[in-house]
Amino acid sequence: MSDINPAALPVEAVLPPLLECLAADGGAVLEAPPGAGKSTRVPLALLDAPWRGDGRVLVLEPRRVAARAVATFMARQQGEAVGGLVGYRTRADSRVSAATRVEVVTEGVLTRLLLDDPSLEGYAAVVFDEFHERSLQADLGLALVQEVRGALREDLRLLVMSATLAVGPLAEGLGLPVVRSESRAFPVAIDHAPPPRDTDPLDHCARQVAAVAGQGTTLVFLPGVREIERVRERLRDGPPVRVLHGRLDGDAQAAVLDDGGGAPRVVLATNVAETSVTIGGVTTVVDSGLERRPEYDPRRHRSRLVTRRISQANADQRAGRAGRLGPGRCLRLWAREDVLARHIEPEIQQTALDGLVLDLARWGCRDPADLFWLDPPPAGPWRAARTRLIGAGALDRDGGITDLGRRLNGLPLPPDLGALVLAGRDRGRARTAAALAVLLNERAPGLDREPDLARRLRRFQDEPARWPALRREWQRLAGERADRADGDPLDEILVDTFAERLARRRGPEDHRYLLADGGGARLAPGDALAAREWLLILDTDGHSRDGRVRLAWPLDDAAVARVLTRRAEEREQVHWDPERDRVVAERVRAVGALVLSRQPLARPSPALLQEGLLAAVRARGLDLLPWDEQTLQLRARAAWMHQLAPAEWPAMDDEALLADLADWLAPFLAGRRSRRDLQTLPLGDALALRLGDGRRRALDAALPARWTVASGRAVAINYRAEGGPRLAVKLQECFGMEALPALAEGRLPLTAELLTPAGRPAAITGDLGRFWREGYAAVRKDLRGRYPKHPWPEDPLNAEATGKTKRALRDRP
């Protein structure tokens, strides 16, 4: 970081009111844009507050890079080395001492501190920096700190700082005042340069960087290390190129954060450079507009890293890096008209919650509703995580933490990897299991593209010095424990830990695999792993259908046989046979979806057949049901009522109907087994059951299926029409009608499609009275010559409504 005069920082102006809020209200929410100086100036300002006494100020940063950089910068401002008055602590590194009074930590460290000592003895304040990043650990830490302040430590000060989050709901939920700081940033000129069609985006990025790099530092945002290295290869000529990402050790990161003496240079960085850390000398930013984030698949209970567009808030922060020293420039590698989401989705909404559920169980909380959340944990993933932890023995049936759960919670790993480490300790493979857990939890440069985990393990164990950070983590997990000569086979430990990821080759010459959890995966043709019938597939590229295998453990046939003897179970199951268009029932011996043997089931129970039909509809879609126009219209009417009153009427979209099949469809499946059987299903009655008692009558009153027009004919209303409900009726049948009916007490407009005597559209209107006054004359002039046999009165409001010809009207009795 470059040296900055603290007095020149914009946040300096709001320190007096901020300190007053902390003293009087016990906390505050500070909204300060990038460059205001909040990360480094505010924690030091708290040292002189009378309420602090001798307590420490605990500062939370979202990343290890930021924690080290912020602590180092503050220490330098005090004329000290880090580890004195200002220190830091991350999972992998710690520099604190008895003299430390400002302790900068990563968010997971706060959770450990709270679980070990809920009263946070010795700490006077907790500061959440960059809360807008909305990490799961930040949300959890804030929930726990808020409960501590309410139950144990009224004197504990809380400060939440954010650059881009809309802080109103947060401040209201916490009951704290908001303090706002202005920005010190200079104007930044924004230009756009999207890659031309059929151009490699990284080639385009490198060319743009080479064109704009000049004075000072050019900061380039890329989604990941792979892209950084590829762009770096293309920038061999020109200013020196440095890189910044989370895999670098502390010294390498510190060297990049310096301003390089002001000489021209290029820094290629991931999103670690967005917040908290300041890279010296930046005058130009080149932004790819991409980032790499984990995406969770709850159905498979797996996360994968995906490259996706950043939010507008991220883009603004990145651009702001060019305006710290003076007017700057930001070149965005996407089209100006492209629209970005306003903010990133909170991590709590898009990740597995096993670690969160386990942490809260140790805290003594079994219901997340008991705590404060800006965004509460979603109910489905919460229940799924709880079920998994109960099945693993980490929680009891009531959701309380067990001895195994406490052991897992004491490890700095996700619960499934913690289970691997504990199984290794208990079964004589402590050191090897610890090494595997590290390789599965941390990215290892140089090993990442090796899909064979056994080969990764051998290379890591043979040359651990090549990966010093991983080696330190391995040593911490393994301690003095060693593998025993009589330890269990590693294959069996792995399969017992990750049973749902057991996979079998689909055919003798096939490179595709079926997993025990029902998913599919494939190896590249010619991959050495494809020679194995059985694999433990630990990572894929995330594609829903036969994702490419990124990491797998080759399983020995003898070990698999022993595992199958213990884990295979017999069960009755059903599946849909697409060739026979019916449910087929059988008795199988299987491990999850991996069927080892099967035989037909002569007399399947009605419940089993019902389960099979429901599963078939879920898998094949609602088109398997006998929709006709009447039921489609009923569904559309109910969907409109849900749109008008979502709290009172159930949703009728595909996702909602499929999710609740067992409630509204199952009662009508008795005696049915095939597609032909389903064609006689009373689908209208099933939809009425979904609506519930009384709602069908209310639906008919609010949104009638038909409306009687002036001619006396009941005309169907089309609720599926584009743009809203539509009444298609011959124009002459509406003579005398001054207005269209009011649907849903006037909340839903109805459009009339007025037809010619031949049934072709003549006019469309939502205001029938206005049409008679202003539009009818032109329509009459156009159509009376084409349809002379039909009446075309000059005064339609006082004419007889009819669908008959003039002759038929004369000849009627």
From TrEMBL:
Residues 787-813 are annotated as: Disordered. GO terms for molecular function: ATP binding; helicase activity; hydrolase activity; nucleic acid binding. Residues 19-183 form the Helicase ATP-binding domain. The keyword Nucleotide-binding applies. Keywords: ATP-binding, Helicase, Hydrolase, Nucleotide-binding. The keyword Nucleotide-binding applies. Residues 204-364 form the Helicase C-terminal domain. PANTHER family: ATP-DEPENDENT RNA HELICASE HRPB. NCBIfam families: DEAH_box_HrpB. This is ATP-dependent helicase HrpB. It comes from Alloalcanivorax marinus. The lineage of its organism: Bacteria, Pseudomonadati, Pseudomonadota, Gammaproteobacteria, Oceanospirillales.
